[in-house]
Each structure stands twice: as C-alpha cells, then as structure tokens.
Amino acid sequence: MNKITVILTALIAIWLVSFGTVKILEKSNSIENKIVIIPIKGVIVPDETDMFLFGEETTSSDNLIKKLDNAEKDQRIKAIIFEIDSPGGTVVASKEIANRVNKLKKPSVSWIRESGASGAYWVASASDYIVADELSVTGSIGVTSSYLEFSKLFEKYGVGYERLVSGDYKDVGTPYKKLSKNEKELLQKKLDLIHQMFIEDVASNRNITVEKLDKFANGIFYLGREAYDIGLVDKLGNKDDAVNKAKELAKIKEAKIIEATEKKSVIDILSKLLNNAFFYAGRGIGSSMAYGGLRINA
Amino acid sequence: MIKKDLYIGRRLANTMKRTKKEFSLLMPRRVSLWKRILAFVIDLMIIYIATLPLQTFLAKEIGIGDKFDINTLKELFSEGGDKFEESSSLIALVAVIMSLSALFYWSVLEYLLRQSIGKILMKIAISSQTGELKIWQVLVRNITKATFTTSLSILLLIDVIYMFFNKNNQRLTEVLSKTEVVEA
Question: Which ranges of A119-180 does DSSP label H, i.e. alpha helix?
C-alpha cells in the first residue's frame, strides 16, 4: 500500500465509525419526547459577573436565555418547566427573562416551589401555566431601591463628602449624603413608573385587567393558597402536577424529564472567586456600595 | 615556532570540525520542538474533521447549536458550561470514540508509514531504538495522545512535560516504548 492509500483508508475508517455511531444514536433517540426542567434559583441578575460576593446563588438572565434558546432548538424537547425558588432580582434581568419566556414557541409551566416572588413572579407570569405549592411565597409585585445611607457615620469619624457635580441630580443615590426632598421625589417617580410597567406586563401575561391586579400589586407577598384564590397562580401542586400540565399542553403522553443543570468545574469556581475578589478590591468597597445604592430590584 | 603551533592548532580544529560533522551524520538528527508541536496540532485538526459527524450530532443533542466551530468544541469538552444532565453519558461516549479514533489514527499511520499527516508535512518521522518498529511500541507512544478529549488529558501534559527534562527530548511514553522522533 502506498502512503496516500494508507492515509485515506485510515481517515475514511474514522469517518465511517463517527458517521455510523451518529446513525445508531439518532435511531435510538429519535422517538423520545423530552420535557426540560430549568431551575430559576436565587437572586436574578443580568450576567454572571454580577454574582454577589461570597457566591450567593444567582440566576443570570444571560445564561437562562441561552438555555431557553437551546431548549427551543432541540426538536425532542416538547415543553419547558421552570423550577422557581427565587426572591426576585434586578428589574432588567427579570424583564429580560419574562420577555424571552413570552416568546417561547413551546409550552411552558412555572412550578413555584419555595418562593417565586417579585421579579421571579414576573418571570412565572410569562409562562403558560403556574403551579405553586400552597405554602410557597409568591406575589410581592413591587419595586425597591432602598439602600444604606451612612452620611451620619462619616460625620462621626470626621469624614466629609465634597460634592462636586455638574447637574443637580448627578450624584442622586450616593450613600454619602442624605437625599433631598426633590431627589427622593425623583427616585420615587422612577420606581412608580417601573412598578406600573411591572403591573401592566404581569396583567397582560396573566390575561387579567390592570385594575384587578393593581389591588394585589402593592408589594405584599402571598402564600400559594392565597395567590390561587386571587388568581395569581393556576393550580396548587407539586412537580408531578407541573409535569402533567406540561405533557397536557404539549399534547404528549410520555416524556423523559431532563434537568438543565449548570455544571461548574473547580477552575470556574476559583476563577469566579478570584475575579470577584480583584473586582471588589479594585473598585473599592465604598464605591461598590455607591453603585449598589441605585440598584433597582423587583 | 609560533607559526608551527598555529598551523597544528588550525589542523586540529579542522579535524575536530570534520569528525563532528561525520558523527552528526551518523546520529539521528534531533527534531525541533516547534515542528513536533505543529505536527501534533495538524493531526488534531485532521482527527476533529474526521469525527465531524459525531461532534455535530452531539452539539445538536446538548443544544449548543449545529455549527462546528472552536466554541462548540470548547463547550463539548470543557467541564463547565451548560449541559442537560442526561447528555453527560453521550458526551462521555463521544469522548471515548474520539480517543479511540485518535489512537487508531496515530498508531496505524505511524506503524505503517512511520509518519502521521502532521509529521509528513513537518518532515519528521518516528524511529524505534530497538530496530524494527512493533505495534505495541506505537500503541504505547500514542496512548496519552488519545486522552486529549477526556479528563485524563493530564497524562498527556505529564508526558509532554517529561520531554523537557529528558536529554533526548523524548516524551515519557517514547522512553517507555523505546521510540523517538527524528528528521525524515
């Protein structure tokens, strides 16, 4: 055998093994319907770099949207279940996820397990059906931007805030000075506006009038049972109920339940911790608090 | 007297130079590291292309798209990244098939031709220190290369690091298999 024959034979053999394996796998997998459970746990944030210090559990809207894109592409995934255990998160991240859920072409069911409050409820409302445990915490349709203000503490230690701004409202929300009446009014207006958008979006998702929802959207949280009575959830139940509803919506009898877990290697965790450490050290704890001051959460 | 000494010195230097040249012709020429690395990279690319159907299938299967690119590979074989839990057995299967394909590729070509495609392009070849090249030698010298898609790829790293501490620039598996890489 000459050189070229040997090389071509070897390469064709590898390609045939690869192709043959694919054909066998496709045959064995093609008839299987799947329902994917996507967890929404912890605080909802826009991306992973926004992870809270010391690794508090978070759900990043970037990651979640990527998972939804993947689930939508996979022909064998017939329905999506969101396993929700979250107190909410930033307004933008919650809205980003809710918008994506709204655009899903596959049936979706939200299963509120422990808590699905505020921004997490916003996301749940965008799904086709909400199942909640009767003791879960949900609702809490409101917006907050509260923060620590330590101007008095600074005064005590002789630390002053030299205000240098061009534009009266440029440093609104800094924790080093008290808010003026005008500033407070301004911030309150913004929060009210976001709250209104939150209510309108949830009302539209749940197919109820803004007026009706307005009565329950004062930031109060409801137990699952109460939420069911006022129409914020569709059914009181557990994972089985969510799965059965997903099957019903997808019009399938049997399905394999798979979980979209996020596996992190030790290197990922270490690099994230290091990144955070350097990030916070570089930015300075004080300024990180200042930035944190104007974070608007739902 | 000085003139004579200079003459003898020059003759001696010339003789040494000639001997060194003749000696180096008899000895296998040591291959530069970059040639070996480049040959390895070329071979890796060829193996990736030959196993393309499998990777495309896996990319679709775990929902990271249907395009073959470097990001797909990164996601396929990195420990991190989002994967649907049930796909892990599939990923393991693909990794094993790719490893076996790699072992087959290097072993068959090196046994029959003394060269893989990368080595042909880099004009290098393998040589047995025991005379005739045996099949066990090519299997042993390539066993760590076959781990590159699995979590055992640390073995390949150890194998390569050993090369820097070996006076003949041989990998550990090359020492064990009594083989070396020489200029073709």
Answer: 119-125, 151-156
